[in-house]
Design a protein that fits this description.
Blueprint: H1 6-9, H2 35-52, E1 59-61, H3 68-73, H4 88-105, E2 108-110, H5 112-116, H6 122-125, H7 135-151, H8 174-179
Parallel strand pairs: 1-2
Helix pairs in contact: 2-4
Protein backbone atom coordinates (compact mmCIF):
# COMPACT_ATOMS: atom_id res chain seq x y z
CA UNK A 1 0.00 0.00 0.00
CA UNK A 2 1.30 3.44 -0.92
CA UNK A 3 1.94 6.03 1.78
CA UNK A 4 2.79 9.66 1.14
CA UNK A 5 6.35 10.79 1.80
CA UNK A 6 7.01 12.13 5.28
CA UNK A 7 6.92 15.70 4.03
CA UNK A 8 3.36 15.19 2.82
CA UNK A 9 2.04 13.53 5.93
CA UNK A 10 1.62 16.76 7.84
CA UNK A 11 -1.15 16.18 10.35
CA UNK A 12 -1.75 12.51 9.79
CA UNK A 13 -4.95 11.93 7.85
CA UNK A 14 -5.21 15.54 6.70
CA UNK A 15 -4.56 14.85 3.02
CA UNK A 16 -6.77 15.00 -0.04
CA UNK A 17 -10.03 16.01 1.55
CA UNK A 18 -12.46 18.85 1.10
CA UNK A 19 -12.07 19.30 4.85
CA UNK A 20 -8.66 20.85 4.24
CA UNK A 21 -10.53 23.98 3.10
CA UNK A 22 -12.30 24.46 6.45
CA UNK A 23 -11.75 27.92 7.84
CA UNK A 24 -9.19 27.70 10.64
CA UNK A 25 -10.96 29.92 13.19
CA UNK A 26 -14.42 28.36 12.81
CA UNK A 27 -16.05 25.28 14.32
CA UNK A 28 -14.47 22.80 11.87
CA UNK A 29 -11.12 24.54 11.99
CA UNK A 30 -9.30 21.60 13.52
CA UNK A 31 -9.55 19.96 10.06
CA UNK A 32 -8.05 22.96 8.26
CA UNK A 33 -4.79 22.66 6.36
CA UNK A 34 -3.12 25.93 5.32
CA UNK A 35 -3.32 26.47 1.56
CA UNK A 36 0.46 26.36 1.01
CA UNK A 37 0.73 23.11 2.97
CA UNK A 38 -2.17 21.65 0.96
CA UNK A 39 -0.38 22.60 -2.26
CA UNK A 40 2.91 21.07 -1.06
CA UNK A 41 1.13 17.89 0.03
CA UNK A 42 -0.45 17.49 -3.41
CA UNK A 43 2.90 18.10 -5.13
CA UNK A 44 4.61 15.52 -2.93
CA UNK A 45 1.89 12.95 -3.54
CA UNK A 46 1.89 13.48 -7.31
CA UNK A 47 5.67 13.35 -7.44
CA UNK A 48 5.79 10.16 -5.39
CA UNK A 49 3.14 8.46 -7.53
CA UNK A 50 4.84 9.42 -10.79
CA UNK A 51 8.21 8.29 -9.48
CA UNK A 52 6.99 4.96 -8.16
CA UNK A 53 4.52 4.15 -10.97
CA UNK A 54 5.50 6.28 -13.99
CA UNK A 55 2.93 4.68 -16.31
CA UNK A 56 0.00 5.15 -13.93
CA UNK A 57 -2.67 7.68 -14.81
CA UNK A 58 -3.01 10.15 -11.96
CA UNK A 59 -6.05 12.41 -11.92
CA UNK A 60 -6.63 15.04 -9.24
CA UNK A 61 -10.12 16.11 -8.23
CA UNK A 62 -10.67 19.55 -6.76
CA UNK A 63 -12.71 20.07 -3.60
CA UNK A 64 -16.38 20.59 -4.43
CA UNK A 65 -18.14 23.94 -4.16
CA UNK A 66 -19.76 24.82 -0.84
CA UNK A 67 -23.38 25.78 -0.32
CA UNK A 68 -22.91 27.99 2.73
CA UNK A 69 -26.64 28.07 3.49
CA UNK A 70 -26.63 24.27 3.51
CA UNK A 71 -23.63 24.22 5.85
CA UNK A 72 -25.40 26.56 8.28
CA UNK A 73 -28.47 24.30 8.32
CA UNK A 74 -26.33 21.15 8.69
CA UNK A 75 -23.31 22.04 10.83
CA UNK A 76 -20.66 19.45 11.65
CA UNK A 77 -21.05 20.23 15.34
CA UNK A 78 -23.41 22.49 17.24
CA UNK A 79 -22.27 26.00 16.48
CA UNK A 80 -23.92 29.23 17.54
CA UNK A 81 -21.58 31.55 15.65
CA UNK A 82 -23.92 31.92 12.68
CA UNK A 83 -20.96 31.38 10.34
CA UNK A 84 -20.45 28.33 8.12
CA UNK A 85 -17.41 26.14 8.86
CA UNK A 86 -16.29 26.61 5.26
CA UNK A 87 -17.09 28.96 2.41
CA UNK A 88 -17.32 28.59 -1.33
CA UNK A 89 -14.64 31.25 -1.68
CA UNK A 90 -12.22 29.23 0.44
CA UNK A 91 -13.06 25.98 -1.39
CA UNK A 92 -12.40 27.85 -4.65
CA UNK A 93 -8.93 28.82 -3.51
CA UNK A 94 -8.14 25.16 -2.77
CA UNK A 95 -9.68 24.12 -6.10
CA UNK A 96 -7.46 26.61 -7.94
CA UNK A 97 -4.39 25.35 -6.04
CA UNK A 98 -5.29 21.77 -7.00
CA UNK A 99 -5.56 22.80 -10.66
CA UNK A 100 -2.22 24.60 -10.52
CA UNK A 101 -0.50 21.54 -9.03
CA UNK A 102 -2.03 19.32 -11.72
CA UNK A 103 -0.81 21.66 -14.45
CA UNK A 104 2.70 21.89 -12.94
CA UNK A 105 2.79 18.10 -12.60
CA UNK A 106 1.50 17.45 -16.11
CA UNK A 107 -1.52 15.47 -14.93
CA UNK A 108 -5.25 15.79 -15.42
CA UNK A 109 -7.55 17.52 -13.01
CA UNK A 110 -11.30 17.27 -12.63
CA UNK A 111 -12.44 20.72 -11.55
CA UNK A 112 -15.63 19.63 -9.85
CA UNK A 113 -15.75 22.99 -8.02
CA UNK A 114 -16.27 24.83 -11.31
CA UNK A 115 -18.21 22.07 -13.09
CA UNK A 116 -20.99 21.87 -10.49
CA UNK A 117 -21.48 25.63 -10.45
CA UNK A 118 -22.25 25.65 -14.17
CA UNK A 119 -25.70 24.28 -13.34
CA UNK A 120 -28.63 26.34 -12.09
CA UNK A 121 -29.59 25.23 -8.57
CA UNK A 122 -26.34 23.30 -8.05
CA UNK A 123 -26.46 23.97 -4.31
CA UNK A 124 -29.37 21.62 -3.72
CA UNK A 125 -29.07 19.45 -6.85
CA UNK A 126 -25.54 18.28 -6.14
CA UNK A 127 -25.04 18.83 -2.39
CA UNK A 128 -27.28 17.38 0.33
CA UNK A 129 -25.91 19.35 3.28
CA UNK A 130 -23.85 22.03 1.61
CA UNK A 131 -20.83 19.74 1.19
CA UNK A 132 -21.60 16.04 0.69
CA UNK A 133 -22.86 14.88 -2.69
CA UNK A 134 -26.41 13.90 -3.56
CA UNK A 135 -27.02 11.12 -6.07
CA UNK A 136 -26.85 13.81 -8.77
CA UNK A 137 -23.52 15.10 -7.49
CA UNK A 138 -22.09 11.59 -7.40
CA UNK A 139 -23.36 10.96 -10.93
CA UNK A 140 -21.75 14.15 -12.23
CA UNK A 141 -18.42 13.28 -10.61
CA UNK A 142 -18.63 9.69 -11.91
CA UNK A 143 -19.18 10.96 -15.46
CA UNK A 144 -16.23 13.32 -15.14
CA UNK A 145 -13.99 10.50 -13.87
CA UNK A 146 -15.06 8.21 -16.74
CA UNK A 147 -14.34 11.01 -19.25
CA UNK A 148 -10.92 11.65 -17.71
CA UNK A 149 -10.06 7.96 -17.80
CA UNK A 150 -11.06 7.83 -21.48
CA UNK A 151 -8.66 10.70 -22.18
CA UNK A 152 -5.95 8.49 -20.66
CA UNK A 153 -6.98 5.65 -22.96
CA UNK A 154 -8.63 3.68 -20.16
CA UNK A 155 -12.09 2.17 -19.98
CA UNK A 156 -13.85 -0.52 -17.98
CA UNK A 157 -13.43 -2.82 -20.96
CA UNK A 158 -9.67 -2.22 -21.23
CA UNK A 159 -8.75 -2.55 -17.56
CA UNK A 160 -7.60 -5.96 -16.37
CA UNK A 161 -9.48 -7.50 -13.47
CA UNK A 162 -6.92 -8.27 -10.77
CA UNK A 163 -9.28 -8.86 -7.86
CA UNK A 164 -12.26 -11.17 -7.58
CA UNK A 165 -15.62 -9.74 -8.53
CA UNK A 166 -18.03 -9.16 -5.67
CA UNK A 167 -20.25 -12.11 -6.58
CA UNK A 168 -17.19 -14.43 -6.67
CA UNK A 169 -16.27 -13.76 -3.03
CA UNK A 170 -16.93 -16.62 -0.64
CA UNK A 171 -19.03 -14.91 2.03
CA UNK A 172 -18.36 -17.65 4.56
CA UNK A 173 -14.60 -17.23 4.15
CA UNK A 174 -13.74 -14.04 2.19
CA UNK A 175 -9.98 -14.34 2.76
CA UNK A 176 -9.93 -17.72 1.01
CA UNK A 177 -11.17 -16.05 -2.18
CA UNK A 178 -8.22 -13.66 -2.23
CA UNK A 179 -5.64 -16.43 -1.83
CA UNK A 180 -6.45 -17.80 -5.27
Amino acid sequence: MWAPPKAARGGGDRLLRANDACIADRCGGFQSVPLDEYRQNLKAICSSLKERWPDTAVILITPPPIDEEGRLKNPYVEDNSGLPDRTNESAGAYARACGEVAKESGIQVIDIWSKMQQYLGWEKSFLRDGLHFTDGGNRLLFEEVVNSLRKEGLSLQSLPIDQPLLYDINRANPLETFKK
